[in-house]
Each structure stands twice: as C-alpha cells, then as structure tokens.
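Worked problem 6 (solution included).
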Amino acid sequence: MKLNLDLKVASKPEWLAAVIHDFNSFLQDHADCERKASAMAMSFVAKYPDRTEIIPELIETGIEELEHFEQVYNIMRARNVQLRHSIGEDKYVSQLIKQCHSGREERFMDRLLIASALETRGAERFRLVADELQDPEMKKFYKALWTSEAKHGHIFVKMALNYFPESKVYERLEWWMYKEAEAIESLEIRPALH
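Solution. The predicted structure is:
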C-alpha cells in the first residue's frame, strides 16, 4: 500500500526567495493556514460523523494543527508580528475544491485526497524553508513541521483507503496531483504557503 504522494512540480526558487525576503508576511499566512488546517480536520468530523474509523485520527490531526498555529503565533509574538484581521480566500485551495465531485461519497473521497495533496505541498515547502533559514531554532521548527505535514499527507490517503477500493483511490489521487500542479503553477509568487 502506497501512502506517499509524488508532487508533479516542485516549488519555484522565486517562491522561496519571496518568503525569505518577507518572512513576517509568510508567518502571518502560515498562521492562517494552520488555523484553516485544524478547521478542515474538524469539518470532516462534523460532516461525516458516521465515519467512526477515522474520527480519532481527524481529531488528533485537528489538535496537532492547532498546536502548530500556537507555535507560529508564539514566533510571531516574539518578532512583534500581529495576526491578520481576517483570513482571505486561498485561491489555491478554492481552485481545487471547485473540481470536486458533487455526490456525497465521491466528494468525501475527493476532499480527503485534496487534504492529502495540501499537506504534501506544505511538507515540500516547509522543507525548503527549513533548508534556507539560518537561525538554528527556526530551522529545527520548520524541519519538525515538514515531518508532520508529510505524515498528514499519508494519513488522509489512509483514511480514503478505509472506504474506497485501492485502485479507485490511487487513480483519483494521481488525477488530483496533476490538478494540484496546475493550481500551484497558476499562483502569483508571494510570501505565502500557497
């Protein structure tokens, strides 16, 4: 059983340069993304309370993402950076969600696989940031996040495999990874996770 995802395109060096150049803005966006990731995990619990096999992992993931938010917020406080007043639309995520199937079961699988793709991209980008940062504590923090996001990418595939045939999951996952590549390539370069 294959749980890891293969990104179809790598993040551009220009993206990393924008992040390092305006790291405070990146931290603000990163904090927003952690809040949204926690909410996403908990929204699965709310929308699919009958999927009892995956609820414990969803709760654990939601808590872990909220802890990441707290850690990012503490870094922001130390740097005297405020949270944004509102969380704007994430064009990357919106672009993917618009391509979901509409049927309840198909949409459930699509949402799990999109979550997996998001976490995998996050892992790739946190790895790049960790490798580029000079501060040892910040390097350590982003390396830990990279590991965590990669694990979450696997978890959502595993969840889908609880409910759908392996061949169907992997065929759809492959399709989503191409759609993820299109979405990431369409974004403007800015100091944001997506």
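Discussion: The CA atoms of residues 17 and 191 lie 8 Å apart.
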